[in-house]
Amino acid sequence: MRGLYVSIIFTVLGSLFFIGWGLDKLAEHTSSEQQNPQESQSTALYRQLADGLAQQLNQLPEQVLISTVQQFQQQYKIITHLVLSNDVALPSSLHAQLEHDGGLLLASQNDQYLLNKLNQHPTYLLQLNFPLQQEESNPFNFILTLALYLSICGILILWVFPLSRRLFLLNNAAAKIGEGQLNVRIIPSKFSYIKMLENSFNNMASQIEKLVADNKILARSLSHDIRTPIACLRFGLEAAIDSKTAEKKNSYLTRMDSELTNMEEMTSAFLEYASMERQALHLKKQTVNVSELINSAINDCQMLAEQKKLSVKLTATSQHIHYQLDYHWSYRALVNLISNAIGYANSQVLLTLTTKNKQLLITVEDDGKGVAADKLAVIFTPFVKLDADRSREQGHFGLGLAICAKVVDWHQGTITTSNQQRLSGACFTLKFPIEK
Length: 436
Fold this sequence. Notes:
Blueprint: H1 2-58, H2 65-76, E1 79-84, H3 92-95, E2 104-107, E3 111-117, E4 124-131, H4 139-178, H5 195-225, H6 227-242, H7 246-274, H8 276-279, E5 285-289, H9 290-300, H10 302-307, E6 311-316, E7 322-326, H11 327-344, E8 348-356, E9 359-366, H12 388-394, H13 400-410, E10 414-418, E11 427-433
Parallel strand pairs: 6-8
Antiparallel strand pairs: 1-4, 2-3, 3-4, 5-7, 8-9, 9-11, 10-11
């Protein structure tokens, strides 16, 4: 938002400065062209009158000058009188103008007057007063003021247009998401003033799309997977009611208890997965020794490996590779991957840790039968079970790899699976970017 504030300030101040400067230049040019014609129109008659009066006074003796000037006032209804030359303090540059035709034009706050030199009577100056000419209403000043405000408004409209357009697109995208089009996103633009808002909106839309998709999968899978234990419970209940002996009845009740336990575990797993998005808001990332983290996960799965008589080994290029991770969720993701590999391996599980091309790489391989080609694209989708019968027997609900994918995504990493590695089974590869 800082860029938005800066652009507003520079737009307003810049437009005021440049438009004001341009209009000032235009006003100066126009006023300079109109100044001389205005002066000649307003003072020409008074200059001619003053010259005529001065010529008449030059022809008269000094004794009658004052009385003659008084007669001029009465005859022509003007304000004129004689002043002593020594009483008028003028700079030397203005003294020369007294010799010019029309005399010297001076102005005060209330009126203006002409001073004419009497060549035959150098001790006197003829002063002719006349009122200040009222300035005629000039539409040019109004036009300049109007041009200033219109120009500023035009520049602000040009500035606001991209902002309003982006807000319009944002509003349309929000409306479409409200109608159920959850894949709508704002296309980034380098001319946008609200990039942060648009990015936040896109992130929010992605989160909403993920949540809705997960909820749909959860509802579909839960409704599908819960039918089998419910059917078993109904069958067991009917069989128990019809049983003639206590032994058979107890057998059916034991099976029902097992199905109830399975339903409870399945519901808990589903609810836990549904709440994982909230967990992403409370990650506690810290600098973790990745080699020690992997070894801890291997030790946690060691008993399972011993039961299947498997070996689980880690090969690391360095024992001092550190990375910013949420320890709890990273540990859980690794345990899920290792236990999954143990479940499908024949004799060994191999983990590698290395750094390459500014990336932290972790691989988990097994020597099992691998992943079917049609399952590679959906293996990280929630509730997808590679072996439905085996998953049911072992109490798996198809969430282990989906949880791994979410945890890796929380750390801005990627997880992929393939079958083309040194062992014959599946290989899961985790990649995390290494920031400088």
